[in-house]
Amino acid sequence: MHLFTGTLLVVVGAALALAFGDNEFGWFQGRPLGIVLVVVGLFDLAQGIAERRKDRE
Description:
The protein is built from two helices and two strands. It has 57 residues and is mainly α.
């Protein structure tokens, strides 16, 4: 499940950062919010990969 949510966060974050960078969502701008989502998604992906490797051992 970590791999799916991490991938989804990276894709949505990249779309926000690249396509909607100057738009405002409430008090957030698209680019900083997108960058945060990409970082959180990458962390989630790393955690999912580490869990998979641990389960294989």
